[in-house]
Design a protein that fits this description.
By secondary structure, the chain is mainly beta. It has one helix and seven strands; from the N terminus they run βββαββββ. It is globular and about 45 Å long. 28% of the residues are buried.
């Protein structure tokens, strides 16, 4: 399978006051590039939603930079490789990465971790990133 032409992402549209609401986010369709040398395209199946993310929605100094308005929400994700331009990661492999809240993530193959979801659910791997 070649990389899809477009995919969906969740972007931070505005800074929440109190609990985040649907209007603080935007569902955006973006182009998905073909993988360059050493890159792979991942179709995410599980994405993390962690408590630290709420703090990063504020524009304040912290241990991690705030999420940028109009940009994809980053964080841990697990997905299946649907296109590969790397000898180290094959189409069909399942990988853990930090690509966040997007349908398709393009990543350098050397920045992902292959995981075995035959005995452990994909969501169990999300706590590994940190």
């Amino acid at each position: 399978m070649t990389a899809p032409r477009t995919g969906r992402e969740i972007h931070l549209a505005s800074r929440p006051v109190g609990l985040p609401k649907a209007e603080n986010f935007a569902l955006v369709t973006v182009d998905v590039p073909e993988p360059a040398d050493g890159q792979i395209v991942i179709r995410n199946t599980v994405m993390s939603v962690d408590p630290y993310m709420r703090g990063r929605m504020n524009d304040v100094k912290s241990y991690a930079p705030p999420f940028a308005l109009g940009e994809v929400m980053t964080g841990g994700a697990v997905g299946e490789v649907v296109a590969s331009n790397s000898p180290d990661v094959a189409v069909g492999d399942t990988v853990l990465h930090d690509g966040g809240w997007r349908e398709y993530a393009v990543r350098a193959a050397n920045t992902v971790q292959k995981v075995d979801v035959s005995k452990v659910p994909a969501s169990a791997y999300l706590g590994v990133l940190g």
